[in-house]
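Q: Here's a chain of 323 amino acids. Please give me its 3D structure as tokens.
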Amino acid sequence: MQHKPEPDKIKTMRFRDKVSALKYGPLKAISLSTLQINLGYVCNMSCSHCHVEAGPLRTESMGSETAEIVLDVLGRNRMQILDITGGAPELNPNFVFLVREGKKLGSHVIIRSNLTVLADPRYEYLFELFNNHDLEITGSLPCYTEGNVDSMRGKGAFTKSIYALKRLNAIGYGTGNAERRLNLVYNPGGAFLPSSQALLERDYKKVLLEGHGISFDRLFTFANMAIGRFSKILEQTGKEEQYHDLLKCSFNADALSGLMCRYMVSVGWDGRLYDCDFNQVLDIPLDDSCPQHIRTFERNALSCRAIAVGDHCFACTAGQGFT
């Protein structure tokens, strides 16, 4: 159910107050099933909507010592899911190690890929890695047309993504095998919200199958977070206030129960802990009562923690939400 405020109340609306008014009190974690690790901001692309402002010139990257601690925490706490993101996580020297060892520990491993990196001949070995392990791959493809994708991600991005998807299909990803899920992610190309996820998924599947012979399992549609590069675009185009108002007006209380932050902890490239990848970028730490670094990870304290929120959280509850 969406709660739309009166226009004169939009400007002063705060996310924390909105949640409290719904008798939730502070937003709290429900459980802890997922350890999401950001391997750093190094990337082969510089996408216009990237909230971490990743790119080829970034140097932040998770080291081997932190990666070892992550795996120790994963094993000791029997975490069900290891969710690996970046930047382009495949560029981190510890990527293969984390995938292999995460699987050995019995975790379901999710890879969040920009897809284009898989078209680089230097990373051809990744297809063998993916073929030897049953993973879940969530690839970013912000549209199903070449023009829109290239305008957001750079010339040639669409062609490289199509190549990667075909290769993934060839080794059993996105073909209905529950052990080898292939998801795609849609992001709007401007200051507007995604349309119906179900309808967009139908369109994506039709266009990609008929035009390229590609299949995938599920499409996720997410509103752009007004931080990082997208925030700068909003400022440059004079749409910052308009977009923030849109997110607030589109608040969906039903999205609160499924927010990712309520089931996971985010580990930064340097080992610091956060409620989510967005709080990591904004340097919003966990509640003071919680461990602040992967070295001092304590599952019980993190499983029922109060979540640090800000007005950027409206993007996660706008429309269908960010789950």
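Q: Can you summarize the key feature?
A: Residues 33-229+259-295 form a domain with the TIM Barrel fold (CATH 3.20.20.70).
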